[in-house]
Amino acid sequence: MSETIEGGPRAPVLTAKHVVRRFGGLVAVNDVSFEVRKGEILGLIGPNGAGKTTMFDLLAGSILPTSGEILLNGVNVSGEAAHRRIGRGLGRTFQIPRPLPNLTLIENVMLAAQGQSGERLLANFLTPWRVAAEEKVAETKAGELLELVALARLAHEPARVLSGGQRKLLELARVMMADPAIILLDEPAAGVNATLLEVIIDRIRDINARGITFLLIEHNIDMVTRLCDRVLVMAGGQLLCEGTADEVARDPRVIEAYLGGAAAA
Ligand SMILES: Nc1ncnc2c1ncn2[C@@H]1O[C@H](COP(=O)(O)OP(=O)(O)OP(=O)(O)O)[C@@H](O)[C@H]1O
Questions:
Q1: I want to staple 14 with a disulfide (CB 3.0 to 4.6 A). Which of 9, 36, 139, 260 is the partner?
Q2: End-to-end alpha carbon distance in the chain
Q3: What residues does the ABC transporter domain cover (predicted)?
Q4: What letter would DSSP give residue 69?
Q5: Burial tier of 251 (Cβ tally within 10 Å: 0-12, 13-18, 19+)
Q6: What is the ipTM of this complex?
Q7: Pocket of ligand 1, candidates 21, 22, 26, 95: which has the most ligand atoms within 8 Å of its Cβ, to mutate?
Q8: Residue 232 CB–ligand 1 contact under 6 Å
Q9: Which residue positions in the chain have pLDDT lower than 70?
Q10: pLDDT at 119
């Protein structure tokens, strides 16, 4: 019972209810329902073309569902734009992060600050002291977040010097700047070397220990097994099954879905 009490330890942060998304004749997401519970790291796996990225786009608000509902902390956000969902505590990283190459790391992270007066020309003109004070606070916070993701020593370097794996860490710091309740992570392990992968796994654990919930799309099953208590499997736009990483890896339907994908590739 207490599992679903609003605000309780296992309350749903993000809910998909019978979500459908069509692209012309193709049903990329077909009647998918699930919950991401407060404090968990939930995995989302499935073969190429399963509909995982489309599901992320729907949850984040980059695209809208053809039908069905998306709830963020119990509020129906199905028709809301992405920036409004960010304001409600939903963060998202991209498979291929694209920081502004000529800005420093700290400047890139500061760009993600919410509600700065500096964004408003009038405020800048009328209350420059407040804008300066807010920028100082944002700079301190961005510095702390770069420390959290082990990039503090590069804080004043331009983002173009970063490797692919370091860009993923910068992306995590950027998302954290908006104080998210939940972060959607899109393939954080893709293209990352083994050493940096360990850093990314550690940082995700640290951020999760601060009470932040994660939904993780990942093809690297070792990472999923190490981070996720619960895993959802999608195939052909539908939710195939749910369980621990070990359970789903043994499930004949999952094996069949991956083998079918490999045969079709
Ligand atoms: N904008 C779009 N227009 C038309 N079809 C699309 C669009 N976006 C995705 N699709 C199709 O929807 C299906 C699901 O794609 P999606 O990218 O969500 O899968 P995925 O599980 O994320 O795959 P991968 O693991 O390869 O990233 C695919 O058949 C894809 O071609």
A1: 36
A2: 45
A3: 14-261
A4: E
A5: middle
A6: 0.96
A7: 26
A8: no
A9: 1-9, 114-131, 261-265
A10: 54
User: Could you give the strand order of the β-sheet that contains 67-72, starting from the edge strand earlier in sequence?
Assistant: 26-37, 12-23, 67-72, 75-76
| CATH at residue 46 | 3.40.50.300
Ligand 1 contact via 96 beta carbon (within 6 Å): no
Looking at the structure of the chain, the number of domains it has is: 2
> What pLDDT does residue 137 have?
85
Q: Alpha helix (H) ranges present in 15-118?
A: 52-60, 82-87, 105-110
CB 21 within 8 A of CB 29: yes
Which residues make Cβ contacts (< 8 Å) with residue 139, sequence separation at least 6?
A: 106, 110
Beta-carbon-side half-sphere exposure of residue 200 (alpha carbons within 13 Å): 27
Q: Whose CA is nearest to atom 5 of ligand 1?
A: 23
238 touches 250 (CB < 8 A): no
The ligand 1 atom nearest the CA atom of 46 = 21
Same domain, 151 and 47: no
Are 232 and 115 part of one and the same domain? no
152 in the same domain as 111: yes
Q: Which domain holds residue 104?
A: 100-161
Q: What are phi and psi of 31, to 5 degrees?
A: 60, 55
pTM of the model: 0.88
Assess whether the C-beta atom of 53 lies below 6 angstroms from ligand 1.
yes
Query: Which residue of 20, 54, 184, 221 sits with most ligand 1 atoms within 8 Å of its CB, as the best mutation to test the pocket?
Result: 54
Helical spans, DSSP H, in the chain: 52-60, 82-87, 105-110, 121-126, 128-148, 164-176, 194-209, 221-227, 245-250, 252-264
Instruction: State how beta strands 90-92 and 75-76 pair.
Output: unpaired
